[in-house]
User: Fold this.
Amino acid sequence: MGKVLVLHGPNLNLLGTREPEIYGYTTLADINRMMAARAQEAGIAIDFFQSNHEGALVDAIQEARGRYDFIIFNAAAYTHYSIALRDAIAAVKVPVIEVHLSNIHQREEFRHTSVLAPVALGQVCGLGVDSYLAALEAVIHKLAAEEEQDGGQTDA
Ligand code: DQA
Assistant:
């Protein structure tokens, strides 16, 4: 069974009340619930972790090595300057899909740069909650393709 880890960075615990004109009214619990439902339907395991602390996110990425097939990561403000998170992603070699609710390229100049993008598999941004769901869809698709390549074997 494929396994995906969803990581949420700083201030995303405030979703629903935090600048709703930018981030919408959906809470982090709602996002996690939607993703969990889709993952269950697709038969993949999913875990979630939110932290406001850079080191805790570095630890989570390191601990994902060998345990998860993919990471879906909204690093929030750390996206724009955390070399520590970038190095962790490069070190563990678990493919990371970077997500953002807002379109970071349309906003303030300092948000246009992602130091994570060069080491990420891909980036989805600007679609609101659908950024997360689109990333999950890509993971489901890639896991199915990998399974097919392995001869269609399942570990049931
Ligand atoms: C964000 C965009 C970041 O620039 C910002 O710091 C966030 C959220 C997004 O999901 O749109 O906290 O990652």
